[in-house]
Amino acid sequence: MATLARLQARSSTVGNQYYFRNSVVDPFRIKENDAAVKIQSWFRGCQVRAYVRHLNRIVTIIQKWWRSFLGRKQYQVTVQVAYYTMMMNLYNAMAVRIQRRWRGYRVRKYLFNYYYLKEYLRVVSETNDAIRKALEEFAEMKEREEKKANLEREEKKRDYQARKMHYLLSTKQIPGIYNSPFRKEPDPWELQLQKAKPLTHRRPKVKQKDSTSLNDWLACTSARSFPRSEILPPINRKQCQGPFRDITEVLEQRYKPLEPTLWVAEPIDELKLAREELRREEWLRNVNDNMFLPFSSYHKNEKYIPSMHLSSKYCPISHKEQFRSENPKKWICDKDFQTVLPSFELFSKYGKLYSKAGQIV
User: Fold this and answer.
1) Residue 85's closest CA among 347, 355, 282?
2) Smallest Cα–Cα separation from 164: which of 196, 137, 133?
3) pLDDT in tens, 44-90
4) Is the pTM for the entire model greater than 0.70?
5) Model confidence over 248-278: pLDDT tens digits?
């Protein structure tokens, strides 16, 4: 009981001391808590920053590998494009060279062949000279014929005049006006009158009356048996009453011209004729009927057919051998040239090969 009494007496003192001590310890507790929070925050910050640095290093490595992969792939594509471009330029240059050679050969042989044109112009000039000479001879002949015709016409006119004036011819008793006794020689007209015959006037023929016999009447062969009547003028009469059409409209419908249909107007073989005409025009435009295949051996065993210029009636060209001359001694091999693939086939072929190589790498 004494102990309980002592504890009750000291209870107020213990409570005050407890509150006093707690009040003194609270600032230190708060300071320690702040210090612990700061330490934890610093440690967690270091930990997060280290993790972020780790993630940055990993991301940088991934980006480096990915960008190196993209760069290598882009470089491969650039190399392929450059290779294809170089090959296309090479093939285009080869095609241009082939075209240049072929066009030069064609122009020299068919269009601007100097020696052929010179020979052609020489023959044309000779032909023109011959034609001009023939025309001059023809003109001279025509002139001579015209002069001869004029002389004959004048001779006929003088003969006719002499026949008309034949009554002026001199006789033994009375000399004519053209045979004067005071002239040494008679006038030329006197000689012309002596050669000419007197002009006699023809009696006009009397038309006999048309006499038809009974047999002609019975056989109906005479024009008077059934005389032809002229076309009478139309009768001006009034138009009939009722639903009747005009006479001119009826006659136009009765005597209208034939209008055939398209099926009847056009021939049956029109398409065939049009194709033949088109084929004929294409044949006229072509220089050579055979297809030009310089890189194939299809026409190797065929005989060469000369062109139109070489097969003409003029003399052949002396220098034609230089266009198709062959020297077997200079041949490297006996094989034919390889055919050149088109550009798109080359591109597709090499593109597939390089795409497969890229997949393998």
Assistant:
1) 347
2) 196
3) 999 999 999 999 999 999 999 999 999 999 999 999 999 999 999 99
4) no
5) 888 888 888 777 777 777 777 888 888 888 8
